[in-house]
Structures are given as C-alpha cells and as structure tokens.
Amino acid sequence: MKLKNIFNLQKLYFLFILRRILSVGILKEKIFKAFIFIATVVTITVTTVFLYNFLDDTDVSEQINFIYFIIKMQGVNIIVWTMIIFVFTRIIFLKKGDFLKITNQLPITHNERNSSFIIFELLMSLTIIFLISIAVIIAVVLRTNFHYIPLLICTIFFTSLTGYLLLQLINSIIIYVLNLIKLEKVSALVSILSFIVMLAILYLDIMQSINNINYKSGEFNHWSQFYIELYSNYGFIVTSLIFVIIIFVLLIILYIPNNFGSEDNLYLKIKKPTKLRLTMFNLYILQISRRVENITTLIIAYFLSISLLILDILNPLYAMFLVTTSGLYIYTQTDSIRINYYRFNYSAIKDYINLIISQYLYILITSLPILILGLIINKGNVNLYDTLIIFGQLLLIIILSTLIGILFPAKKDNPFSPIIGFLIIVIISGFISLILQFLNFSKLYNSILMMILYIFVIYISCLGLKKLKEEFLHEDS
C-alpha cells in the first residue's frame, strides 16, 4: 500500500467537492457564499460571548477549578458527538460504493481505496468536531490566555481522533467477520445496528457517571477523561507520545480487508399491484418503498425505536427522524421518473407536492408498528399531543431534507452533497435561532416567522426544481 496513492485520492475527493459541489448550483453564487460566511461568523461569535460569560467563576466555590471542570465535561461531549457523527456517516455512506466507482480506472489497490476513504471520513469528522468546539476553545482562551490550549488539544482532538479510529476499527472487524461467514449483504446493516446499541450503552454509562459527580469538589470520573488524566499526571509531551502510539496501533484498520463494492440490486422485488395507476405520485411511492437503502434505514429506525422503548429515554417515534434522511436523496432517486415528465406537461409545484406527500405518507405508514408496539408496552397509554407534535416535526424535517436534496443533488450517489448541504442548513438554522433569541418575540410572532420561513423554503425548492429542469433540457439539447 502506497501512501502517495492515498494522498492523491484525498486530493481527488477534495477536488470533487470543490468542482462538483461547491462550484455548482446555489453554491457558486457569491451572495450565497457571503451569507453563509456571515451566518457562520455571527453564530460562532454569539455562542462564544455566551460561553465567555458562562465561564465567569467569581461566584463558584474556590474548591472547584470551574474552567477545568467545564473542559472535562467537554470531553464527554466530544465522545458523544464522535459517536453520533460516526453513526450518521455510516447511514449517509451506505451507497458510497457507487461513488467510489470513479476510482476504478486508477492504478490503485483495494486497500488503498479503502484506506483513503477511512482517512477522508476521519478528516470530515475532525472538521465537524472543530466547528462544534470552536466557540468553547475561543471562550476558554479569552478567559485564560493560552494556559489551557494543551489540555483543549488533548480533550478535543486527541479524544475525537482516537474515538473515531477505534469505532472504525470495530466497524472493520464486524464487516470482516460477516464477510467471512458469507453475510456481506447485511454487513453494513448489522454494523449500524451494533453501533446504535453501543450509543445506547454509552448514554446510560454517561448518565450514571454524571449522577455521581461531586459538585462540591468538581470530581468527575469517566473513561472519556483518559487523555485529560494523562495530561494532568504526566504533561503534554508524554500524553502526545502515548497518543501517537495508540493511533499507530489503531491504524491497523487500514490493512483489514473491507467490502467496498456497491450493491447491484437497488430495489426489493415487490410486485406492482395490477390496478395501480402509474401516476407520478404512485411511482414515487413505489420508488421510495422499494429502494434497498431506504428499507435499510427503516430497519435501523425500528431497531432504534425498540431501544428507546426499552431504555425509556425518548418517545420511540423520534427514531423516525432517521427515515427523513431519505429526503436528502429523494430528488436523485426519482430523477429517472421526472425526466419522462419533462417532455410532457411537467409542473414543478405538482412535482414538489408529490415529493413531500409521498415521503410523509411513507413515514406515516411505517410509523404504525412503532405506535402499536408503544401502545402494547404502555398498556394503551399514549400522549396524543406529543405524538401529533412529533408527526408535525417530521413533516418540517422532510421539507428541509428535500430542500437539501434539490439544492445539492447527490448525483452518482456521492455522499458529499447531502453532508455539505446538511451542514449549511444547520448553520442557517442556528443563525436564524440566534436572531429569534435576540429579538425575543412572543411564541405567536416566532410561529409566524417560522411559517414565513418554511413558505420561503418551499418556494426555493420549487424554484430549484424548475432550474434543474432547464439545466437538463439545455444539456439534452
């Protein structure tokens, strides 16, 4: 395995993002780029100011090093976020095999292709962790100059990097074992389900540790504090050396054979009802319900809902938020159907309505087993108000995820467009939330503003569908 080839593949991935995602569609508009930059800066600045004021320890007992205690708690947050990011990327990258076909003609080995994408995932994870932590870093530095920078590096970057590689090692071992016993078809699904179980166990473990915190002395013991304890006892140099050794050992995942091939069978073999009219809406329903990756995501959601029921953490219907991720790919999944309508009486508004309603109907129907199971376990007791609120939230998330799928269509099943689109929507949503907090309107005015915002989202989505039609007809001619 040549490091040069792995490095060149990294450049290929970044070049693909730069030219095929960041330089097309709405992202090539300078005004939009300027808005995203301003929204990011404002969001980070406001969050930093809040944390700076929060870190004022004048009213805290002298027995507690308040800033040190907050950094220790940040170590727990990093572990949780690393785990969530890892599970999320596993779901988003279910079809990355199709994207990696662009590397088939290159003179590289299977292990080099495998290793390059593992490293790229790691870089993406570190970038997201940095964005999540940057406000904390700046606030601590402003409070203490650069005294806690080495501790922050150990807490945030060492913990995140080690955690992600450890999770990737477990993932590679699971897939390798399943491949050995000829279960490669379900290896990705089993792997994700395994990590959902681990995430539930992690939640219970953290909650138990938090309940045992001694708030008088600030003592907090948890395995996520590994690098923090090393730094406190032996200093930054020794901690860095141990980190390098651990990373070197974990990098054996680069040599574990991994199945990167994409599934040839994209659809479940479901016979079409003989009396079903072939309308655009019905075709969208068939497309959504037959796609293998959508069925896989649904199974994961069911597994998560059962976990939530058993652990009694949240309403099990929250697991259906995973199913709304299909909205990130809904445009490309239905593109072949849409193309046939372009040459006839195509309506972007009608197309958008079909996209939203087909997804929502699919989620409503597939939510029934969770509702029935919840009624059985809770002996008929159900909070109707909470259920209706969740179904309303599911509709709103479908609208947002469909917007991402339209503005950042994942051509050739590339996994980068949805992730970048998702990050941009998160930045914009955070920016809008800060504005609403600053304006301090009543609930009624906030609801009106959110309704106007979603009307704007729907308008942009329809406009995007029209634009994509024009681009297709122009390329076709």
Would you write up a description of this structure?
It is a single chain. The chain is built from 16 helices and no strands. The model is unreliable at 261-265 (pLDDT under 50). Helix 10 (292-311) runs parallel beside helix 13 and helix 14 (384-407) crosses helix 15 (416-439). It has helices at 3-20, 30-54, 66-92, 96-99, 110-144, 149-180, 187-211, 226-250, 280-290, 292-311, 330-333, 335-342, 348-377, 384-407, 416-439, 443-476. The two termini are 45 Å apart. It is mostly helical.
Query: Strand share of the residues?
Result: under 5%
Average per-residue pLDDT, rounded, comes to 81
Secondary structure class reads mainly alpha
Number of distinct beta strands: 0
Question: Biggest sheet, open or closed, and with what strands and sense?
Answer: none
Assembly status: single chain
Number of helices: 16
What gross morphology would you assign?
Answer: globular
Q: What is the gyration radius calculated from CA atoms?
A: 24 Å
Poorly predicted parts:
261-265
Q: Spell the H/E element sequence.
A: HHHHHHHHHHHHHHHH
Distance between the termini: 45 Å
Q: Give the helix level as a range of percent.
A: over 70%
